[in-house]
Amino acid sequence: MSDYGHPLTFGAFLTPGNAEPGRVVGLAMLAEQVGFDLVTFQDHPYQPAFLDTWTLMSFVAARTGSVRLAANVTNLPLRPPAVLARSVASLDLLSGGRVELGLGAGAFWEAIEAMGGRRLSPGQGVRALAEAIDVIRQVWDVDARGGVRVDGEFHRVVGAKRGPAPAHDVGIWLGAYKPRMLALTGQRADGWLPSLSYLQPGDLDRGNTIIDDAARQAGRDPADVRRLLNITGRFAAVGRGPLDGPAEQWAEELADLALSDGISTFVLGSDDPEDLRRFAAEVAPAVRELVAGERAADTVPGGTGGARTATGGTPGGTRAGVPTSATAGSPGGSGRLAGAGAFAVVPTPDDGVRRSAIRVWDETTRPTGPAPDPARTYTPHDQAGAQHLVDVHDGLRAELTRLYDLVEQVGAGLVDAGTARSHINTMTIRQNKWTLGTYCESYCRAVTTHHTLEDRGIFPHLRHGDARLAPVLDRLEQEHHAIHDVLERVDRALVAFVSVSDGMAELRAAVDLLSDTLLSHLAYEERELVEPIARLGLN
């Protein structure tokens, strides 16, 4: 079993069809709005029914602001590596560091030959890919002396000037299946990107073994190689097979792939907007919770996780206005919890700011739990579970900030200057309203999913472990129901927003009320539960 401890990320794998050029762009924008970390596109330059992938990525980069982009995977035989290196670096600079590089040795050789490429055997393809990685990394290494020099069997660069360097450390991910490609991945690459549909049972374990062994022989840590996976499936009310069933089944199966096979990036192959929304709103948050809970329980001293590594549940999460505390279970933690000691997980304080005049509940009537025992000490294992609650809440706070950004973008004018021509203005307004509605719907679903997990799992365990917590848990459950009503108010405001000429005031008011209730509730829950969770565990 292998869990390399990487933060979990989720991506979309879109078809770059050119019959409706705007459709794939709209799907990429939707993926960003609903919270995907990554959007990828097939790269088949010989396919006349497809848009050119690098042109498409440049266009999408200009229409998005946070999501990362990659070809899945780049067709190396038709893209000379020195030119590709500069293309990647240029788009990374223009997009603010949002480009990664998926690479493949090549396939569909007749079509490649028809486009002027050279047919290669499998062995030649691996050697050509290794040379290409040399070329690309040298082009990006602007601090090295002299020009780029690779006198290879397939790629020859003799003194080309270096640069530009990308804006960030671009990952090179290889689409690999056979032993030689897997070994190259371990020796030279930053990620392994196969497709689940091409794998047989046991292939992930065998591939990890080859990659890990090759990495060690090259003097690398196997954890330097991220494990990504293209997946496809079907959402259904009843489970009928792997990734064919309800969102809860998807979440459990992907969490198992993360914990058992080290997969930390799941890339959903679908051009269905509903699939993208549901995956982002229901599957991804549940996978994060399941994996973070297992890591917190199993990977600290005294745990049973073996190779598993404890990490926070929400990569990059920060609390609204408050830095994430550096504790066990948080990426980048300072390690101050190396041994048992005083309780050090910091609940997020309520800043007291209220945007709405409406009060859903009386905060002064909230009960408090038992005072912590000042003489008690807490192990890193104890505190990792408590930190997990803060990490999950950080994700909800970050999403709320993004929701506000979307509302303000719509209120500020809906369209950018480049698309302000009158004959498309109305269509763009409709698209922005629909996208905002989709995101609000997805965010509301994520909040509800989190509350359901607490009500059905964590709260009964805490209630059984310490009866003194009952008044607090009762109140938190009541507030969950109240927040559900507030989410319904957001839904009603969205209906009004897309149905009338000016529904912005009602929408802003509804989101303000959501912000007040949710942030207040999360702060109260952390204040009352982080210590009991450390004391009693997460179940």
From TrEMBL:
Domain Hemerythrin-like, chain residue ranges per copy: 387-530
Biased composition (Low complexity): 320-329
Oxidoreductase as UniProt keyword: yes
Disordered: annotated segments: 296-335, 354-376
Keywords: Monooxygenase, Oxidoreductase
GO function term, MF aspect, one: oxidoreductase activity, acting on paired donors, with incorporation or reduction of molecular oxygen
Pfam families: Bac_luciferase, Hemerythrin
Domain of life of the native organism: Bacteria
Gene3D superfamilies on file: Luciferase-like domain, nmb1532 protein domain like
Domain Luciferase-like: 14-231
Keyword Oxidoreductase annotated: yes
Protein name as annotated: Flavin-dependent oxidoreductase, luciferase family (Includes alkanesulfonate monooxygenase SsuD and methylene tetrahydromethanopterin reductase)
